[in-house]
Amino acid sequence: MKDSAINPLLVVLSGPSGVGKDAVLSGMKKKERSLHYAVTATTRPRRQGERDGYEYHFVPKSDFERMIKDDELLEWANVYGNLYGVPKKEVRQALARGRDIMVKVDVQGAANIKRVAPQAVFIFLAPPSLEELQERLKQRKTESGVDLELRMKAARKEMDSLSMFDYVVVNHKGGVAQAISHIEAIIAAEKCRVKPRRVELA
Q1: Most buried residue among 3, 27, 151, 175 by CB atoms closer than 10 A?
Q2: pLDDT tens digit string along 162-179?
Q3: For the whole model, what pTM was predicted?
């Protein structure tokens, strides 16, 4: 029998802005399952209630640019003028310990990871509809009218990237618990593969 610790999973969770990725991850963390959550580095300003090193590593642009230069990021992207990236070191350490690791990125970041780690598990978190997504972004009240228009334009394009992913999970209004259950079922199914995925990072 195969030992799941020998072939830990790299799970990539993605989807359009406002779909509820943070809410889903927050709910999964509360369940305290054996899963390491990679913390993304970003140059964007910290929002109210966010903690450095928990939701994100908030770093100056100069530090982020040094990380790019030194090839310390699994992927990075410029999203609406802010830089986001996943530190390689954290991912490597989790995999070396035999722990499954989840990475939250935008669709552009998922595409970049797909190129360097094609054996990762790619999950797309989708809204029930674009109209519902727009309403969620309005309620979040963190975007101006121009930003909202840009995010909706990006969301339409991102929805066209579904074929790049292994799974899609729809996050219905008030349905975070159900979305979490679906993601956990995906991870459980991956653990039962006859031919397990083997993630190797350069």
Answers
A1: 151
A2: 899 999 999 998 899 999
A3: 0.83
